[in-house]
Amino acid sequence: MREDGQLSDIEIPYTVAARPDTGLNNGKIGIWLFLASEVMLFGALFATYILLRVGAPEWPHGREFLNIPLATTNTIVLISSSVTMVMAWASLKRDNFAKFRLYMGLTVLCGLIFLGIKYVEYSHKFEHGLYPRTNTFLAIYFTMTGLHMLHVMGGMAVNAYFWGPGAALWKTDKEHFTNRVENSGLFWHFVDLVWIFLFPVLYLL
Amino acid sequence: MSDSHSIDLHKHVRAYILVFVSLMFLTLVTVAVSYLHLPVRQAIVVALLIATVKGSLVACYFMHLISEKKLILWVLLLTVVFFIVLLLVPAFTVADRVGS
Q1: What is the pLDDT of residues B15-56, one digit of tens each?
Q2: How large is the average pLDDT for residues B87-99?
Q3: Could you tell me the residue ranges of all domains in chain B?
Q4: CA distances from A11 to A2, A3, A7, A50 (A)
Q5: How many domains is chain A built from?
Q6: B78 close to A (CB below 8 A)
Q7: Span A137-143, mean pLDDT?
Q8: B84 to chain A: nearest residue by CA?
Q9: When comparing pLDDT for B92 and A202, which is higher?
Q10: Distance to chain A for B100, nearest Cα, Å
Q11: Inter-chain residue contact A40 with B51, CB threshold 8 Å
Q12: Is residue A13, in this structure, part of any structural domain at all?
């Protein structure tokens, strides 16, 4: 702390160095604990899906209401964004900031494409009078994909920040910035992982 | 950056590309299988099996779990246990009707 009592010069420990007790920096352990809570959040919705499906006298196949080619494209887009995300982190590890900007930009772009396709999908449903209230299948479909979409938006906001103004940290503390990007990457991969399960469960079964 | 570090990263990047190709291939497989119109039980098993393999690839390589510290693996093991309990809740709701 500075002599005049300002907090701005306080150095937060263990943002780069590993804590002696956990062997990890604080950001890393924090993001993994958060992801563990996210597993339970989506887990509750998957359990709800099973309960609704098992209890229903009949359950429609996803293709009766949903567009499989569009969802397949979105799966490919999201998987591609996971690769560009990890390449963005690897570029920082290789001390190549220009490549990081390129890959991080592509990651955000893939997120935008995913949201665009989802907008088209949702619009089609609404045009045909298909709403969450229409039936149980659509209710759980909109709930699960809607929650997932919010996660995509959150991840994109953080990634866009690190692509833009947040990248200023690279000039002063490379390792700290690289750790931040790694943590936002972990969240982004989790979003991809959830979609990997949502896609077959809602669209293909 | 030392040479060994850059060689290590080069290996990592190669692994990422391989995982990417595998994920694309498995996505196409899971979509193709859905058009075979298998019986529901078989379709569920195949689709979830492929999704689990894809999810594991993402977690192990993109999220670096394969080389992560034990503490995180323990946290995740605990999460998996609770996740399974959560998914079993619907089964319990069926079980309480057994014999009635």
Answers
A1: 999 999 999 999 999 999 999 989 989 999 999 999 999 999
A2: 75
A3: 1-67, 69-100
A4: 11, 14, 9, 48
A5: 1
A6: yes
A7: 97
A8: A43
A9: A202
A10: 16
A11: no
A12: no
B43/A82 touch (CB, cutoff 8 Å), yes or no = no
Do the domain assignments include residue A75?
A: yes
- Distance set, CA A103 to CA A19, A83, A92, A113 (Å): 30, 9, 10, 15
% of chain B beyond a pLDDT of 90: 70
C-alpha closest to that of A100 among A108, A91, A109: A91
- Given CB atoms, is A153 within the 8 Å cutoff of chain B? no
Place of tokens 């009766």: A64
How many Cα atoms are found within 13 Å in the side-chain-facing hemisphere of B61? 24
Does the beta-carbon distance from B24 to A76 stay under 8 Å?
yes
**Side-chain half-sphere of B71: how many Cα atoms within 13 Å?**
14
Q: What is the CATH number of the domain that holds A87?
A: 1.20.120.80
Distance of CA A116 to the CA centre of its chain: 16
Which domain covers residue A120, as residue numbers?
A: 26-204
- Cβ distance B72 to A24 less than 8 Å, yes or no, reads yes
Binned at pLDDT 50, 70 and 90, residue A1 comes out as very low
Which of A193, A194, A198 has the highest number of chain B CBs within 10 A, making it the mutation to test binding with B?
A193
What is d(CA A21, CA A77) in angstroms, rounded to the nearest whole number?
39
Distance CA B76, CA A184 (A): 18
| Torsion of the alpha carbons at A196, A200, A202 and A205, rounded to the nearest 10 | -170
Q: Are A202 and A62 in contact (CB under 8 A)?
A: yes
